[in-house]
Design brief:
CATH architecture of the largest domain in chain A: 3-Layer(aba) Sandwich
Strand content of chain B: under 5%
Order of helices and strands of chain A: EEEHEEHHHEHEHEEHEHEEHEH
Shape of chain B: globular
CATH superfamily of the largest domain in chain A: P-loop containing nucleotide triphosphate hydrolases
Number of strands of chain A: 13
Strand order of the largest sheet of chain A: 5-6-7-3-8-9
Structural class of chain B: mainly alpha
Radius of gyration of chain A: 23 Å
Number of helices of chain A: 10
Largest interface: A-B, 48 and 36 residues
Number of helices of chain B: 11
Largest sheet of chain A: 6 strands, mixed
Helix content of chain A: 25-40%
Radius of gyration of chain B: 20 Å
Distance between the termini of chain A: 49 Å
Number of domains of chain B: 1
CATH class of the largest domain in chain A: Alpha Beta
Number of domains of chain A: 2
Structural class of chain A: alpha/beta
Helix content of chain B: over 70%
Distance between the termini of chain B: 41 Å
Oligomer: heterodimer
């Protein structure tokens, strides 16, 4: 049995690999999170986010590498006295009342947060006497996230805390989490919404294909994904236009091509729109109807992970570089 | 809001195992209680069987020894049913819920949680005897001396242990649907062939011979011995013990296999 060490960082993951049959969910992942950080774990579905959290919460063990929680093995229950996780809101015991679920979880800790405070932080006071089976999806989600704080943890792991919530409920949850972080807790939150990570995190770790693709301050990663969407029409067939456009400097990818009245209408993603337009003009291509606008976060994010995955396959340094 | 901050200072120890076991027993009990139909089905069936099959036969109901034996064998069925359903169907159901995974991230060992579950099963086993005891006392000639009553209370545990283990083996090795079906398919044949509905004296020779090797029959014979003084066959105790060991092995295998599959 390992023991937690005072002063050890909340999370140290070193060269962790985890496979499920033929699928490699995590491939040589290393991650260190210091006390008081609030880290967003961003990646598409199947990127390995949930697997990473299941290793941190002691649910699974890695095939290779080490996972440490405050210096201890998360498989050892004693290492988890400082950990708070959240159940999926679909899995709450339906017949128990809200206050009973809170008390039940609190019963696992020596010095839990008082029930009144748990309920107040998430605006659940009115619902204390209701059975969880009778709550709305949003209310259940709030309760589920509230449960992660019942043990007054120093490290909170949240897996997609606000997926499926409306805007208002989402903001209530975010505010409660920011509050708790201000009290001194370390928070790791996963999401496939960039917006959620932007609202909560100071540092963002982008995972894709089981690898860490980027790990940086949130503003830097946002820069990284600040792509522009360029739309234009070229006369002629798709194939010819596509290859000509791909070769232009600044153009990252040709994401769409549809037949239009006077040829084919192409949509490009450009890391540097200015450079792309200059190159386009210099190339002498007979384009018309040029439009430039910001890429949606989803597009940008997908481009980043796609690029990262190819970069990771060829080079040991997975952080994609974008000139700005 | 009274702001308690994040836990500070030296890390708190785990809660004592007994406290965690008691916590889980309490909340599982409440959870079961909130679905009254599950409770009623479990508690009423043995009582109804007594009411419909034994009470009308006055030759049995008015004879103190025969009546006590009849109540005793239905009591074995009640305990068996409570244990198999709580653990067989109950465990399979809980395993299917994502909440089970969440509970495993709390700072508690699996042992006390399992102990809480067993305590809950035992509580329901005792409760399922209440209707039987009431009907037996007021509508039949069944009687127990204080020593016999005390013996009966102890026997509940002796009967509950093997069937709790069998229930766990079923619950940890199957899906909810399969576990429910297997529980029922185990319960009724074991009950019938074990002489829990009809006294084994009425069995043909070949059935009686098979019956004596069943855990339900061994449990029945021992309970009847404790409550009426009628000597149980010498094999009853070893047979029950052997089944207990076998079910324990099966339960350990099922729990380990489940761990390996879901939480490797």
């Amino acid at each position: 049995m390992t023991t937690t060490t005072p002063g050890a960082p909340p999370v140290v993951v070193e060269h962790v690999t985890r496979r499920f049959g033929a699928v490699t969910a995590l491939d040589d992942v290393s991650l260190r999170v210091e006390a008081g950080e609030i880290v967003g774990l961003l990646g598409p579905n199947g990127a390995g986010k949930t697997t990473l959290l299941s290793l941190l919460s002691g649910l699974r063990r890695p095939d290779g590498g080490t996972v440490r929680l405050f210096g201890g093995d998360p498989r050892d229950p004693a290492s988890r006295t400082w950990l708070g996780t959240t159940p999926q809101e679909t899995g709450l015991p339906e017949t128990l009342k809200v206050r009973e679920v809170v008390d039940f979880v609190a019963g696992h800790y020596a010095a839990p947060m008082p029930r009144a405070e748990v309920l107040a932080r998430f605006g659940l006071e009115e619902l204390a006497e209701r059975q969880t089976g009778g709550l709305s999806g949003g209310q259940r989600r709030r309760l589920a996230v509230a449960l992660s704080l019942v043990g007054r943890p120093r490290l909170v792991l949240l897996d997609e805390p606000t997926t499926g919530l409306d805007v208002e409920a989402r903001h209530v949850l975010w505010e409660a989490l920011r509050d708790y972080h201000r009290d001194g807790a370390t928070v790791i939150v996963t999401s496939h919404y960039l917006e959620e990570i932007e609202a909560l995190a100071e540092r963002v770790v982008v995972v894709g294909g089981g690898r860490v693709l980027a790990d940086d301050r949130i503003d830097r990663v946002l820069d990284l994904v600040a792509l522009r969407r360029v739309t234009l029409t070229l006369p002629g067939e798709e194939a010819a236009g596509r290859s000509a456009l791909r070769g232009l400097s600044g153009v990252q990818d040709v994401v769409d091509a549809v037949p239009a009245a006077a040829g084919t209408r192409f949509t490009l993603l450009a890391a540097d729109a200015d450079a792309a337009v200059r190159a386009l003009v210099a190339s002498g291509l007979p384009f018309h109807a040029l439009e430039v606008r910001g890429a949606s976060l989803e597009e940008a994010f997908l481009a980043l992970t796609a690029r990262g995955a190819t970069a990771a396959a060829t080079a040991p340094v997975p952080t994609p570089e974008v000139s700005r | 809001m009274t702001a308690t901050t994040v836990a500070a200072g030296p890390r708190a120890a785990l809660r004592p195992p007994l406290a965690v076991a008691w916590l889980h027993a309490r909340y599982q009990f409440v959870e079961t209680l909130r679905v009254p139909i599950a409770v009623l089905g479990n508690m009423l069936f043995p009582g109804l069987a007594l009411l419909f099959f034994v009470i009308p036969q006055r030759a049995v109901a008015d004879d103190p020894v025969a009546a006590t034996a009849a109540v005793g064998q239905l009591a074995v069925f009640a305990v068996m049913s409570a244990c198999l359903f709580t653990h067989g169907a109950g465990v399979a159901e809980d395993r299917a819920l994502p909440f089970d995974g969440y509970l495993r991230t709390l700072p508690a060992r699996p042992g006390p949680r399992l102990a809480g579950r067993v305590l809950n099963g035992l509580a329901w086993a005792y409760l399922s005897l209440v209707p039987l005891a009431l009907i037996g006392t007021f509508l039949t000639a069944a009687t127990l001396s204080w020593a016999q009553a005390l013996g009966a209370v102890v026997m509940v545990v002796a009967v509950a242990v093997p069937f709790t283990l069998l229930g766990l083996a079923i619950g940890y090795s199957m899906s909810t649907k399969a576990a429910l079906a297997v529980t029922q398919c185990t319960l009724f044949p074991l009950g019938f062939a074990g002489g829990l509905f009809l006294p084994p004296q009425m069995f043909p020779g070949w059935l009686d011979a098979i019956s004596r090797l069943l855990p339900s029959r061994a449990a029945r014979d021992l309970v009847v011995q404790v409550t009426t003084g009628a000597e149980a066959p010498g094999l009853a105790a070893p047979v029950l013990l052997a089944w207990t060991v076998a079910f324990a092995a099966l339960a350990v295998w099922a729990v380990r296999r489940d761990e390996g599959r879901r939480f490797h």
